[in-house]
Amino acid sequence: MHISEPAEYAILGLLEERPMHGYELYQHFQNEPLDQIVHIEMSQLYAFLKKLAHLALIEAMQDQQGGRPQRKVYNLTSAGRTTLQEWLTVPVERPRDIRIFFLIKLYFLQRLLPTHLAKVIAQEIETCQHFLAALEAQRHGPSSICDQAAFNQVVVCSRIYQTQALLAWLCELHRAIASE
Q: CB-based burial of residue 119 (10 Å sphere; 0-12 exposed, 13-18 middle, 19+ buried)?
């Protein structure tokens, strides 16, 4: 078992900022920019918390609240902190993951590791450029959809244009960060 969902990384990032109870974490997915990237239901949140605790990336402690019922407050473990820091500084490999995983990275990099922001964006640009070069090597002649081979070229061309658009956006973002 390993981390596979974007929300799991977001939970680690939120707990890096400070310990929180479940509902407090849930509120961050409802009222912050995170809700534009990751949609999460309360039941999913608790399933993710259970998984992250099983992986020893977070731990829960009981919090006494006077006459009110106890609640669990979640903390990031040192293994969770290491996992988060490593994940934040490694580029996303596939352009399709930029829409969610990379945006989560940006959200937490600017909050937790702002000095790494420009470097991570530059690494992402390089990774995208390599991906684009590999796609362009698969491109053969004009696109059509008359047969399977021709349709494969339509798909390759679509991925090329999507990756080019992502690269343009990443370069614009990198310029904006560099000018700050």
A: middle
